[in-house]
Amino acid sequence: MPWEIAQANFFELTTILDRAEIDWFLVRSVQVKRLVVAVDQEDKYSLALALASSEGSADCYIVGATNPRLVAVLSKQVVALRAYLAESVWTFGARYEDSKSGAMLGLDYGCDIEFWDYSEMHSSGLVTAPRENVAARILSVNELLPATTEVAGRTVPSRSVFHRRMLDDIVFPIDAVYTWVDGEDPDWVDSKRRTEAEITGIAYHGEANHVARFRSRDELKYSLRSLEMYAPWFRHIYIVTAGQIPEWLNTDHPKVKLIDHHHIYPDSSYLPTFNSNSIISRLHHIEGLSEHYVYINDDVFFGRPLAKDRFFLPSGIAKVSPSRNRRPFGAPTALDEPHLNLTRNMRALLEEEFSVTISRAIKHTPHPQLRSVHFEMEAKFADAYERTWSSRFRHHQDIVADQLHHYYAQIVGKAVPTNLRYNYINILDDQYRGTMESTLRLRHRDTFCINDAPVDGAVPIPEDEVNNFLTNYFPVKSTFEK
């Protein structure tokens, strides 16, 4: 995993520094991908010698910050390193290749070396870093008293200023919640058909019970890979199922918590349910769930490293992702698409309660949620919640709580809009093939969604292309897998 590689590069570098008896400390950086160490700029040439003579760095490289194309192979090539002596920041690391998948990671996950200027320390008491960190670029010696911190369970040197709580630090725990179903499980299919046979006289839109809604391509496995690669900071990962367990899932993983539907509904009269709107509207009843959590559909993936502050403000306010698309007005009917009816039903609740209407849709991204807001909405809109919970299949009178939270929390000042960069890819329409290909090639989106929404007359993207996309984007097995 990328963060493990970043840590390995950090420990490789600091071992070299320790052997050369060069003082260093860990910087609390604004970097998302890499760890950063500080070294006195007077020790730059000594470090170059140590790197060039270190047997352990035979397959390692450095790159200068101002000229990223200037790459030198280490191991007894001190002459090549002279070109770097004018640089104030180096990136050190090995190229990593996964033995099973062949995936290659370069210096994006290296370790940065900042050369700090101590020349004014005795006259002014100030030390200057080559770039900003979470504290400041210019610091006094009184703020740089020796301290320690931990990296991967190891104690490493730090400085006192980096142990202060900063205004933009997020210190509360954040959980992830997934809903998942194995639509090919014979017992689940039998239960679904028997329940359908018991329900008559209720009109449903064809898409509401479309087979694609229950199809699995192991999206959850790849979504968890993306989470571990790019957002490893989640405390717990709750997976809510109808008693099903993915055969590849490592259920002994300390972060993973499997939640049966029976654990979140008040009694069995609501079960079995095949209504995702109902299930999502009960997630806040997960025992032990943190106040701040992110609901993630299993067809949503993290596309590049993301920090906690992309989803919450340090004050605890959620950061939600409105779409540019607008939802039509009118009354909900069984003839309309389910997502349009959801918006209409939620619009009616909010207009009646706040005299505020909604029109913008919501991006298919991870959805930051506040548990207390969900209990507040459940109490305020009890009839709408009860009606949704009681619908065993998706119904045109449903609401869905993750989307209601998006709007409600903004109205009551518990959420603000943000702008995650994302791609939506409908694999049942081959017009999205180019979007899928560019998403893989450029890896330029914070998140993306692989959806399967039926489109009349559209040609689906072949299954093997979708599977190849997922395996190529996330080739490395996560610790959540057996």
UniProtKB/TrEMBL annotation:
It comes from the Bacteria. The keyword Transferase applies. GO terms for biological process: polysaccharide biosynthetic process. Its EC number is 2.7.-.-. GO terms for molecular function: transferase activity, transferring phosphorus-containing groups. It is an enzyme of class 2 (transferase). InterPro entries: Stealth, Stealth_CR1, Stealth_CR2, Stealth_CR3, Stealth_CR4. Residues 363-409 form the Stealth protein CR3 conserved region domain. Keywords: Exopolysaccharide synthesis, Transferase. Residues 442-482 form the Stealth protein CR4 conserved region domain. Transmembrane segments: none annotated. The keyword Transferase applies. Residues 213-318 form the Stealth protein CR2 conserved region domain. Residues 172-197 form the Stealth protein CR1 conserved region domain. Belongs to the stealth family. This is Capsular polysaccharide phosphotransferase SacB. The lineage of its organism: Bacteria, Bacillati, Actinomycetota, Actinomycetes, Micrococcales.
